[in-house]
Amino acid sequence: MRANRRANQSVQFRLLSDGQLEELYDAALHLLEHTGLDLHHQEARVLLREAGAWVEGVRVRLPSHLVRSALATAPRSFTVFSREGNPEKDLHLGPGRFYFGPGPTCPSFRDPRTGERREYTRADARAVATVCDALPSIDFVESLGTIGDIPHELADVYEFADMIAHTGKPIVAWSYAEAGCREIHEMAVAVAGGAEAFARRPNYIFYCEPLSPLVCNAEAMDKVWYCARQRIPLIFTPCVIGGGTGPVTMAGIVAQAAAESWLGLVVSQLLRPGTPSCMGGVLSCLDMKETVLAYGAPELSLLQAGLTELAHYVGLPLWTTGGCTDSKLPDEQAAIEGALSLLFSALSGGDLCHDVGYIESAMTGSLQQLVMMEEAISCIKRIIRGVEVTRESLAVEVIHSVGPGGNFLSEDHTLRHFRREFWLPRLMDRSRRETWERTGSKTMGDRVQERLNEILDTHRPVPLPAGAQEKIDAILTTAQARRPP
Hints:
Strand order of the largest sheet: 6-18-17-14-12-10-9
Strand content: 5-15%
Number of helices: 18
CATH class of the domain at 78-385: Alpha Beta
């Protein structure tokens, strides 16, 4: 009998001690209570004042009991569902589980066929959703860009409409303002089969951001307000750039990010206790030579690991980052930086890891990078699954039967277990040299492009339910009416 031991549900490392986590927790509470944030939202300031916060103009300071109460009511575990009803595609956020997907809103896009850096279009939103739908180790969908061939004010709602029609996987949505947030919800409700069906099985999670350092604008809080009222799963995630919009020290960046994220948490839990909420923080450092966000830096992995441990320490899932690079192309640098950040995200237990497919310091989206990183994610998921130790897996009887000088290739035990025990690559090459040469001496980049072309040419996502597309089109028509003349 084994007792009084710690058992992780997956392979994980530990970056911070309990004592360090307590200090980070106290620092975030101190910032919220004594420094506070500028909150440019009248209704939220009234709500917080009535709950016991100190409000002076736009500055809001939160007593620690308000934050502790919000942390107590926010669920550690919740589910975002596949719109096609496939339980294998649901996101069950909770301890020991982690998921990967792309990010949104890159201003440029790398053409999936030619590699040309260009403007992102509506067709790209459909292509990204289709590719994500086809890749088994990509778990949720974002756009990798901002649509540029329609009116700017409608890019958010058109993006969601095109993505939900081309994937059955859960989506992470965003919007410019409350109007887009509402229209996205209406489309999701139409696909789910009604408001009650959506409330039971939400098919997306909504993403919004405050402004670092320590500011929340009206648009961000409007979206928190709407999502909490409708019980839409919510991510409230600051983007703290060390040395730019945050302090230069790792601990200070994590503490500031937690304080900024917990403002959204407190408001959502006051509006509707139990609102599914994911703590956020897109954290890295400012490259002091080039003055750009360093998105392939080792500091990104350290910061995200630290924030993940703090989120889990207080009982929240975390929105984290990986699979991204500062390289301008999906090349060798992109492979190294992207794979390292993905591995760190998984080893630290990050719940939702986004921005897979970002290149050029988050300025360009690349499906080539996404496809290459999906291979890395598949490999990492095998590593994280770890080593199972049972009588069957110890194989003592098999080893005894084969004995010295034998081989295990023809054993029934090998046949029963090799497919699960051994990870088999799809893109990385293990062939003998003569086979590699006979089949074209292809590089990793060649194989990535072939896989991407195959998906774009052949993959067909599960269609929307009957009547859903017509409802989505009607919502888009209504959205067009709010466009400024």
